[in-house]
Specification:
Layout: H1 5-24, E1 29-30, E2 34-36, E3 44-45, E4 51-59, E5 62-69, E6 77-80, E7 87-88, E8 93-96, E9 102-105, E10 111-114, E11 123-127, E12 133-137, E13 142-145, E14 153-154, E15 160-161, E16 166-171, E17 174-184, E18 190-195, E19 200-204, E20 224-227, E21 232-235, E22 240-242, E23 252-256, E24 262-268, E25 273-278, E26 297-300, E27 304-307, E28 313-314, E29 324-325, E30 340-346, E31 348-350, H2 364-373, E32 379-383, E33 390-393, E34 399-401, E35 407-414, H3 443-446, H4 450-481, H5 483-495, E36 506-507, H6 510-516, E37 523-527, E38 530-537, E39 541-548, H7 555-566, E40 576-582, E41 585-591, H8 598-602, H9 610-630, E42 645-647, E43 653-655, H10 660-663, H11 687-690, H12 697-713, H13 717-724, H14 732-745, H15 761-774, H16 785-797, H17 802-809
Parallel strand pairs: 26-34, 36-40
Antiparallel strand pairs: 1-11, 2-8, 3-4, 4-5, 5-6, 5-7, 8-9, 9-10, 11-12, 12-13, 14-23, 15-20, 16-17, 17-18, 18-19, 20-21, 21-22, 23-24, 24-25, 26-27, 28-29, 30-35, 31-34, 32-33, 32-35, 37-38, 38-39, 39-41, 40-41, 42-43
Family: Belongs to the protein kinase superfamily. Ser/Thr protein kinase family.
Catalytic activity: L-threonyl-[protein] + ATP = O-phospho-L-threonyl-[protein] + ADP + H(+); L-seryl-[protein] + ATP = O-phospho-L-seryl-[protein] + ADP + H(+)
Pfam family, one: Pkinase
Length: about 800
Amino acid sequence: MEVPKFLLLLLFAATFAQSQERLQGMPSLRKGNSLKVEEETNVLVSPDGTFSSGFYKVGANASCYSIWFTNSANKTIVWMANRDKPVSKRGSKLTLHGSGNLVLTDALGTLVWSTNTISNEDTEVVLLDTGNLVLRNQAKRVIWQSFDSPTDTLLPTQPLTKNSSLVSMRSQGTYLSGFYNFKFDDNNVLFLIYNGPQLSSVYWPRIIPSVFESGRNPYNSSRVAILDVAGQFISSDNMQFNASDYGVGPKRRLTVDYDGILRLYSLHESTGLWKLSWLPDSVDACRVQGLCGEYGICTYKPQPTCTCPSGFSLNDPSDWSKGCSPPFNLTQLTQDTSKLDFLELPYTDYYGYDMATYNRGISFEACRNSCLMHSSCLGFGYALDGIGECFPKSLLLNGYRMSNVKSIIHVKIPKGFLNPGAVQTRLETHDLNCSAAKFVVSTDLETEKGNGNQYMKYLIGFLSSFGLIEAIGISLTWWFVFRKKARDEMMNMGYMALAINAVGFKHFTYAELKKATNDFKQEIGKGGFGTVYKGVLDGDRVVAVKRLEGIVQGDAEFWAEVSVIGNINHRNLVKLWGFCAENEHKLLVYEYLENGSLDKLLFSDVELGLEQRYNIALGTAKGLSYLHEECLEWVLHCDVKPQNILLDDHLEPKVADFGMSKLFKVNIDDAGIGFSRVRGTRGYMAPEWMVDLKIDAKADVYSYGIVLLELLSGKSASILLSAFAQEYTEHNQLVQCVTEKIRVEGLKEVIDPRLYHKFNKKKLERLMKVALLCVQEDRSARPAMSKVVELLLENDEGRVDDEEEDHIISM
């Protein structure tokens, strides 16, 4: 049969692309040489081309040094050096030092990872055909190898020993270390173990009276297991299995996936896709412990999905293991059982953590009352098998919902929290199934007799047929008209799994925040994005609640973007503690800073000394530098001004309102690179805003320079414009006028008179020169914020680069 020409072209293109990648790859890394993160094609390739090793993108601006299958779809990762500490996409590199140490450094030259080796001989780094990255000497003796420190994957011929373990990813697409481990325990037996932040437990093999019943043998302390090239796994504890496609040929990997299940995969090299060739028996996906956290409930269709009971909220959309939270405190109600009720969850169980009051052969009422009377009981399960088993629960963990679960879980809640006797029958949106439709006739109709009954049968049959046809019509309409919308929404929900773990980040309900702010009574600020209110959460935590205006995103995409912002942590950035997303209600919950914003102090009678202003300038620069260059997803602020610089009790500055550009996506240009529409505050906007150029980080630098001028002069930007540039029509005139005034009348004429009594001319000159550097019209001449930090620190330490000094003085 003749092969179509377009298929031959595709095959040629794919073969050419693969050959090009191999040609561009390096056979080894020698002493003194580096692999740089910017040079994406500069990678190490194994001699047969099976594996490649280089920088792999794990975030918008973050990378990890990794090993992957060259011909697999989307570069299937098998090892990472720095999975828990990604490096910047600029300036990072892997270097083999002359001392024989392989070192990974970030953009600032900070050590992130190393082999911690020393060798006086010539050494090289090579990637073997097995996928093993080795550091060896001239005699080919291995000094260090990646096989000794696996991540989540075991490759053929790679031993798993008592000193190593496989650790899952945190979630799908998030390469941080997760909580599932495959390793030898102290009894020399291989187990799958959930090792969470609070609890640790074995979930495979099932806990049984003796390991011998599973064919294991603990009497071998060698603790070693290996997967051979034919697909057979053999362990010192007698654990053995074969791949379903057993035999030499396919490329394979054994991986602990993010859902906690150990799977063996075989690569279909013509498509680059993986085929499942083995997984443990007796492991139900949703029986993996810790998967959905406290109160969380797992369903599996076909991927594990975590949901919360009605009225409960997911603690962290990016980390299922943090579970769900109820919007109430049971401990305050346990003394009065009349105020308690239960929420029914059919076909649901929370595995484990049964209380000592477990019983069988008792009535449902007795079981219910037993849980009511015990303050430590959070709920109970009651079996539907006729035995009358009662399972009171001290913790509601390891929740799962399946059609074959023969019990109902009852979760303790305050009376009135939901409608009396409420039963949660749906935890997720199921596909439309016309065959499952039921048509119910009311009891009044059922009492009709004779011809009426016969007539009703025909009528019911007609209506049933009509209803079925209508249901099919609706299904087809949904499929053709709304399937894109549904697919987009599912994709948006998937975005939430990509965010980095946000410590202490919480999803609030609108009712919670309405109560916390006393129905939004105390307004403490207002800006272009919305109004800020003071609030008090349970536990007397004072917060600032920003009620956003103009958000057009759906809840899922909003959750995803806010989760990313919540992961941004720096001492000079205001901490985002949580958010609310309920239809039109979009709110952000920030830490509350008593001293408020910089403008309220700077443009008032409050005395701010030079050192305090200098520290505010330095801290603000550090915060912006982190946003631009250091956090996993670089962020442009686009509205830097004193109103968005908050001060804590020690006058330490914290930049607020960062990340708004991610939430108000109307300002992002079509290319997704920077911004194209005007936003921000007049007087602080860079010249490029006015001429419709794409906006980058240098726009923030300009705004920062204006803030620095305000710090030095004690006057707001609008007053500066009128005082120094009465004929102001262009942005750069402000710079020209300030520079001219300093040249003719001296620096003292521009500086805030309140600083005269401590007139540190050298420091003031340096601050002014940095400010004027930042507000130049040509954005390429403005320094990056990291350079601003460096210049300010040089000023603080009395060190000034001569070339930079000449550049400033010549202005």
